Structures are given as structure tokens and as C-alpha cells.
Amino acid sequence: MTILARPPEETTAKKEQRRRGVTERQRPLWLLTPGGVLMVLVILIPLAVALWISLIDLDQYTLRRWVEAPFIGLDNFVESFSSGLLNSIWISVSFAVLSTIATVPIGIAAALVTQNKYRGRGLVRAVFLIPYVLPSFVVATVWRTMLQPDGVVNAWLSKVGIEGGLWLTGPRSYWALILVEIWAAWPFIYLMALAALQSVDNEVHEASAVDGAPWWPKLRRVILPYLRGPVLLACLLATLNHINNFTLPFVLFGAPAPEDVNVMPMIVYVTSFQSLRFGLSAAMAVLSLVLIAIPLFVYLRAVRLDVHEEGARR
Amino acid sequence: MSTSASTEATRLLPRWLLITMTALLVTMVLVPVLYIVLASLNSDVGVASGEYWPSSFSLDSYTRIWTTADLSTGIMNSLIVCAFTAVASALLGTTTAYVLVRYTFLGRLTILRGLVGLQSIPGTLMLLPVFVLFSSAGNYLGLTVIGTRWGLFVAYLTFALPFSTWVMVTYLRGLPRELEEAARTEGASTLVILWKIIFPLSLPAIVVSGIFAFLLGWNDVLFASVLTRPETHTAAVALQIFGSQQEGGALPVYSQMMAAALICAAPVVLLYLAFQRYLVGGLTAGSVK
Lengths: 314, 289
Prior knowledge:
The structure holds two protein chains of two kinds. By secondary structure, chain A is mostly helical. Chain A folds into two domains: 27-75, no CATH class; 84-276, MetI-like (MetI-like fold, Orthogonal Bundle), CATH 1.10.3720.10. Helices cover 68% and strands 0% of the residues of chain A. Chain A has 14 helices and no strands. The longest helix of chain A is centred in the C-terminal third of the chain and has 30 residues, at 215-244. Chain B is globular and about 75 Å long. Chain B has two domains: 5-61, no CATH class; 69-286, MetI-like (MetI-like fold, Orthogonal Bundle), CATH 1.10.3720.10. Chain B is built from 14 helices and no strands. By secondary structure, chain B is an all-alpha fold. Chain B is 75% helix and 0% strand. The longest helix of chain B has 33 residues, at 254-286. At the A-B interface, helix 1, helix 2, helix 4, helix 5 and helix 6 of A face helix 1, helix 2, helix 5, helix 6 and helix 7 of B.
């Protein structure tokens, strides 16, 4: 066992020297080749190509000989701002943030009610996971049927005297999208909150029980603070997932999507595979990656990725 | 306060609130879920007129759907492509993850960050270059890729491979290294260690990462809607196209559509039921649907 010289990027990031017993003189790095080569081929090269496409004028005529397509610099990026991208960014971000905000109380409530053991809890937990387990395209198909003008939702609304109207076109489609996303996505917050809740020490519970605190102050002052970190992290990830969700709007509304639900994945999809403006849509996709990079960067900083430290601690 | 002190202490909510909230949440989930089942047992006309509870029950939709939509081809294609994706990404992911967890080297942290970061990259950003490369492959390499199953398989690796690798990283980091070290002092080579120790010990995790890769493929609509022809449509695309054809038609066959939706959801739900204990951990570990 030797202590290896630490790679430069880690010397800046990590200060402790806890690398004993971890490295060996002969590291079988060649084992990385099959997976590594494949990842370079199917991920890194396409990503580089995507960047290149965003700088060239690529359409259905130049598609087959894309290497020879004319280079036009940043023109695609300039054009994407005049083709409704800003509107899509606004729709995507507001949709993602509203969905995340709405799922947090539902997820935490679900975690709280399944924390204590009771008969039938296993069944309740299984039920809570159903929306998350069902494929998105199935969820969207079902809600699409329920939200039809003559569908079951409007039938119920008219029973209580409310005029139903159109859910899948026009301004209400935005709220329909949020509603379905909330229904499908809250179990993620629930799972993260439940994991955090179960890591709360028994002593914490007992101490506050000795104090005789009533349930609400106990919950608010003692228990919920434990959930803050994990739930915030979950929110970050959930927001990213909402922004990237293509399946739900695509299956719910079809392409091209109504103006009010023209989220970023949809506008990129329609620009490339219906308008066949590949260069323009690549520029849009790159811009949406820039937008996502901000919360993603925060997330990657917040999560401990240096598994080595944890592995060595055993 | 007669129950044991410890359960009483961890009780967070008063009984009435617990019951109300559970009931509300369960209703919220079950109303649409039961709707799928009920509508699939209803008649097409009944569903189209907005019935929740069918006026007559029948299994007709389940027999008729196979001729109405090309569902069997779709399911077959999905099974083939996703099975290959699952096996390839689980095996390659395990090998890669083993090196990432056990050894330090330059760029290791970058790879780990990349594995997590890749899961949040917009699918459209990956699909676009894949599509351009595939469609020009005929011109530059003389290959037809678009519309083939193996083309879709390669495309699915773009998200299944990093995901499976990450699932294996989170598992292998918890695996004690004593066994490997013992084997190494006995003179076992890395390949032998990998084959005789790591693979058998982490078999449940390998299965889980394979299942996740399978589900990622099964649930995908984006890639399959662009990279397949009618003969190679996956189940998801078959259902999506079937659904979008209903509006504007003379009589929408919603009951059959719900039957199709249930059939497409069945493998996923069965996999979860069978592996529930293992999969729930992975849901939060990978944090990707």
C-alpha cells in the first residue's frame, strides 16, 4: 500500500489526507476502457457534435452532408431569441418552480403519515409510489382521456354546477400540465423526506416528548428542521426534472404544443423534427443546457461525490 | 397513553390528522388509477361520454386492442431493445464503477460529476446530434441506422450507461474491501476478483441497475418517436400515436386506449412489485425517473 500523489484537482478541493489503504501500485485502469470508450462514443462525441451543429446552418437539405454545412457563427443563437425561446424559457421555469413548490407540502405530509408503524402501512406506502412508478406516457395518456371536453373531469365538474371547458388547448392547458406533473412527481419529494425523517435519532423524539411539547410546535421546531437540507436538495433535482420533462407535454398535448405549454423541450423538438431547422434547435438546446447548468452546478457542489472518502472510512 | 413509550415518542401527528391526511392522499392517487382500470372495462362510448363507473362491464377492449393498434409489435420491440440496453449497461456499468470506487486517478472526480450531471442533461440535446449522426451514417458509412432496433439501442445507452454506472457506484462504495484484499494477497488477479467476488456479491445491485436501465428505455418516448419506423415502434410510441389519432376521429376508442395503457404499464408495475425492496432505494440514489 502506498500513498499516491493526489491529482491536482483534488488537492484544491479536499484537504484531509485520508487516502491510505485505498490505492495500489498497479491500478487496473484498463478496466475503464470498455465503459469509457463507449461513453466517449455515445455521449461526449454527440455532445461535441451538438455544439458544432448550433454553429452551422443545418436543415433537411444539408442534413445528410452535415460536415459540409455552412458555418454561420452565432446566428442561430441570435435567431432563437426571436423565435419564441424567451417565452418558452419563461413557461418552463415557471412551470417547474410552481410544480416543485406544490409537491413539497404533499410529499412531506405523505412522509409524516407513513413514519409511524401501523397496520396497513406497507399498503399505503405502495399506493403512494404508484404515480411515480407508472410510466410518464401512461400517466399522460390517462389524464389526456380524463381531461377531454366530454371526459370524466368535466362530467364531474358539471355535477357540482361548474362549466368545464377546454383543458388541453388554450390558457388552461398550462394549469392542466402543472396539475398532472404534480400528481406524477410528488412521490419523489415523499421518498427523500421519508429517508430524512427516518434518520432522525430516537433521542430527539424522546427529548421533545419529555418536554411534553404538543405536536405542532414539536413538528415545526424539532422535526421539520431535520428535513430542510434533504428536501431542498430534492427540490433542486425535482425542478431540473420538471424542466427536462418532454414526455408529459408531448403526450398530453401533442406536437406542436399549444402556445401556453410550449416548454423548452417541446420547442426544441418541434424546431428540429417538424420545422427541420436542426442548427437553430441545437442552439436552443445548448441555451437550455446553460439555463439548467446553474441549478445543476449548485446540486453537484452540495452532494458529496467523493465516494472514496466514505469508502475509506469503513 | 398506554402504548409503549418509544412509539408514542416518535408519533408526530395526532390521530385524527393522520387519518384525514392518509385518506386524502390515497384518494388523490387512487381516483385516476382506478379510472384506468374501470375505463378499460367500460365500453368505448361509455368512456367518451364521461362515465367514471361503467354502466356495463366487459373485457372486450382487451381483446380488440390487439387489432386496433399495433401494440404487440411495439411491446416486442420494446422488450428486445430494453433487454439489450439493460444487460449492456449493467455489466459495463459494474466494471467501470468498480474502478471508480476502488482506485484514485486523475480525472476520477470529473467522471463522477459527469455521471451525475449527465442525468440532468436535456434529452433533446442528446437526441439532436444522435439523429444527425445516424441519418448521415448512410452517406458517410453506407449504413442504415435510423429505424433500426440496434440504432435505438445505441441511443438508449446515452442515458442508461451513466445511470447504471452511478447506481453501481453508490452500491459498491458500501461493499467492504476485506474479501478482495484477502484474495489479492492470495495472488488473485483483478479480473478474477471482479468475476469471483465483486459480481456475485453485488448481484442484487447489478440486477437493480439493469432493471432501471430497462425502465428508462421502456418509458422513453422522445428518442423512439424520432429514431423508429412503424415496424420498429416501441410500445410507448405505439400508444402515443394511437392516442393522438383519437381526437378528430369519428368515434374515439378510449376504452381500448386505457386497456393499452394498462398493458404498457403492466411490466413496469410487475417489476416494481417483484423488486420493491431494492428498487425504492435506487429511486432516491439515482434520483432519476
